[in-house]
Amino acid sequence: MNNEKRRVVVTGLGAITPVGNDVPTMWQNLLDGVCGVAEITQYDTTDCKVKLAAEVKDWDPQTAVDKSALRKLDRFTVLALGAAKEAMEDSGLNLEQEDKSRCGVIFSSGIGGLGTIQKECERGLAKGFDRISPHFVPMSITNMAAGHIAITYGLHGMCSCVVTACAGGTNAVGDAFRQVRDGYQDVVVCGGAESCITPFGIGGFTAMHALCTSDDPKRASIPFDKERSGFVMGEGAGVLVLEEYEHAKARGAKIYAEVYGYGATCDANHVTAPLEDGREAANAMRMAMEDAGLQPEQLDYINAHGTSTSLNDKGETKAIRSALQEAADHVMVSSTKSMTGHLLGASGAVEAIISCLTTKYDCVPPTIGYCVPDEECDLDIVPNEMRRATVNYAMSNSLGFGGHNASVIVGKEQMA
């Protein structure tokens, strides 16, 4: 291990989302303000309050895994492998030339194989629990996406699964950043995956009054809008390849962005409700800025957690204002969940990818569906249309059930 802090860069990206099944398609659709919310197709919603979700569309799982393997993998793991395949190919890594003991995986899922759990519970009730699938446990446990990514690519470094609800994807990126920066790994494949659009998953969130029950896709996921009434469930996966800077330069890798800072805190207050004043979310942002050596006025863009729930959006606004002070009046803040829905444990990973792309291409995706201003959400939320602007540094925020707060800062590659 090297005791000096090393530079960390992003050299590969992969995504499967409700607005695109690869990174270029997703990015263009986000800039175009395409809404990924639509009627649920994965099950019959006739007797259900919630009719809408942000599903992955027109994606063939066999592009990720062989047909014979599909019956042994939950959908969240298949999505993870699909995004990992794109990211690894995009990175250009030749694993035969790498020390695989210094290549790791840190990958999140908030809930894991919920579809498998529901299916096998139903089977057990019908046929007896000794008759459930022998693949039930390895299909359903939350670390299996991380495990399968490591198995697929033969990565023998640290392999871990972060489970911090909706903050998990950001924690995975931040923890991977520290592993590389502090010299424990040279390469870490990180991110998150989620697939909970099932009667069990949607029903659970409906029962706690967390989901929007509108039947209008254009007025369902509307972060920071005064008429917001709950989040829209999404699904998908996002994968980033993080690499030590000199290692990347030596092999001539393309660099999307540099990772500069990471902060994580806990409200330690309530299992679902955030602190109303957002003080611990603000502390996570301050920690990330201090880690990056940045002043608030140097931040150009924040990809907000922005779930379209009353408490979250109001609390996150207060947190941003507390952390950035006067600079909060000048920073661009958008919620891409207005287009993707809420991908739970995958959201932070997908939004970290988006943040990297904002700094690479100097384009900020909008918060779509914004109609009714809320005086308690008084930030520049880039309403309805993308904006071209220089983005040197971007912060991505994630806030999860259990009080988990995480912020990561990425930016343009710092030239020596």
Order of helices and strands: EHEEHHEHHHEHEHEHEHEHEHHEEEE
Class from secondary-structure proportions: alpha/beta
CATH 4th-level superfamily of the largest domain:
Thiolase/Chalcone synthase
Please name the CATH architecture of the largest domain: 3-Layer(aba) Sandwich
What's the total number of strands? 14
Task: Tell me the span between the first and last alpha carbons.
Answer: 24 Å
Shape assignment: globular
Strand order of the largest sheet: 5-4-6-7-1-8-14-13-9-10
Domain Ketosynthase family 3 (KS3): 5-412
Enzyme class: transferase
Active site: 166
Pfam families: ketoacyl-synt, Ketoacyl-synt_C
Give a quick precis of the structure.
The protein is of the alpha/beta class.
